[in-house]
Design a protein that fits this description.
This protein folds into two domains: 135 residues, no CATH class; 173 residues, no CATH class. 29% of the residues lie in helices and 16% in strands. Strands 8, 10, 11, 12, 13 and 14 form a six-stranded antiparallel beta sheet that branches. β12 and β13 form a beta hairpin. It is globular. The model has no long low-confidence stretch (mean pLDDT 90). By secondary structure, the chain is an alpha+beta fold. Bound molecules: zinc ion (ZN). Zinc ion binds next to α2.
Length: 360
């Protein structure tokens, strides 16, 4: 439903790099395990499993001396240019932030003009298809059902509550599962697999082994929220582009995640006139500068970190149907933060409704 970002090292995503998808899957699987009281190690921080005693995440995704239990392929996706929709008042400022993140001459992009006349062209690409695409999971026959059910529950959770691939905080990676392909070899239907995966994970005995870390990603309701909105109107017809839409762009998604997550009106730093308006200012008013920076990420200076709050682009489930918006995150006091965000969104998007699931 929105382009998928799979590249992360060279800032480009034109080739499909399964590692980008696998990385996001492992991240979400760890979050699920922690929700169900399971230990999940941190291989990227030197706290990975070794030897015989493997955590559930390493059992499925592999460890130094253990192979992954499955293979993953994506097909039917093609590169698409990256562009963004930004509110007129903030296009020069927000465009520059996006330029720092996705642009730069070193990736082949260009930036001309200045101030209101600034123009951006991004050369990096994401992956997209206006038609359904296929994600194939291959497993060994003797463990097909147990491995596939966990993967099904995992991917289903990601598609409902979050997204897939990298840079989901920038709107990428919104997918919907249409079902298992009828190739005559799929073991069972998607719904049954997901239900079994959920039972398997929920039924595991809590592990005594824990990491004494506070800020690890978890889907536990005390830290995780996921809001979905159905929109009847949106203000992005009057917005402006940073970058150029691809040929044949059909408005099935509107790439305005950054504008929603950051701000759509800005105080003039020189005259002091105007006001900062947007999700980040709304959170800052409630939680102050430092906590908001922790939640929304920091790009200034050498001490940069990613946003823990993720905002989808606006996207459609059906051609010409209503747009949906999904916002999720893993933060302290998830319930309170979700309330502040919901009230901001419902105030900004006239006629918006909060819905339990995308598509409803
Ligand atoms: Zn492990």
């Amino acid at each position: 439903m929105t382009p998928i970002w799979t590249g992360d090292i060279d800032r480009d995503s034109r080739r499909c790099q399964e590692t980008g998808i696998l990385g996001s899957m492992r991240f979400w699987y760890e979050g699920l395990l922690r929700k169900y009281g399971q230990y999940a190690c941190l291989p990227l921080e030197g706290q990975g499993c070794r030897g015989e005693q493997l955590c559930e995440a390493c059992r499925l995704f592999g460890a130094t001396d253990r192979a992954r239990r499955f293979r993953l392929d994506l097909s039917g996706l093609a590169p698409t240019p990256v562009f963004f929709r930004l509110s007129k008042a903030v296009r020069p400022i927000s465009g520059n932030w996006l330029w720092n993140i996705f642009g730069g001459e070193d990736t082949g992009g260009c930036k001309t003009g200045a101030g209101r006349d600034v123009r951006f062209r991004f050369a990096v690409q994401a992956l997209w298809s206006s038609q359904p695409f296929t994600l194939t999971l291959r497993v060994r026959p003797h463990e097909a059902r147990s491995v596939l059910s966990k993967l099904a529950f995992l991917i289903d959770t990601m598609s409902r509550e979050g997204g897939i691939g990298a840079k989901t905080q920038h709107g990428f990676g919104q997918i919907a599962i249409l079902g298992t392909a009828e190739d005559g070899r799929s073991p069972t239907d998607w719904g049954e697999l997901c239900a079994q995966g959920k039972r398997d994970l929920g039924g595991m005995e809590s592990s005594a082994r824990r990491l004494e870390e506070r800020d690890l990603f978890t889907l536990d309701a005390s830290r995780f929220f996921s809001l979905k909105f159905r929109l009847t109107a949106h203000p992005y017809a009057a917005a402006e582009n940073a970058g150029d839409p691809p040929a044949g762009y059909d408005q099935s998604y509107i790439p305005c995640s950054f504008d929603i997550r950051y701000k759509y009106e800005s105080k003039n730093p020189f005259s002091g006139q105007g006001m900062n308006r947007g999700m980040r200012p709304a959170l800052r008013e409630e939680y102050g500068r430092d906590r908001t920076a922790l939640m929304c990420g920091q790009v200034e200076g050498s001490d940069a970190w990613a946003s823990r709050i993720h905002v989808s682009h606006l996207f459609r489930v059906q051609p010409k149907g209503p747009y949906y918006l999904k916002i999720w995150g893993d933060v302290e006091n998830a319930v309170g933060v979700a309330e502040v965000i919901a009230s901001h969104i419902l105030g900004r998007f006239r006629g918006a409704q909060q819905v339990p699931e995308v598509g409803q």
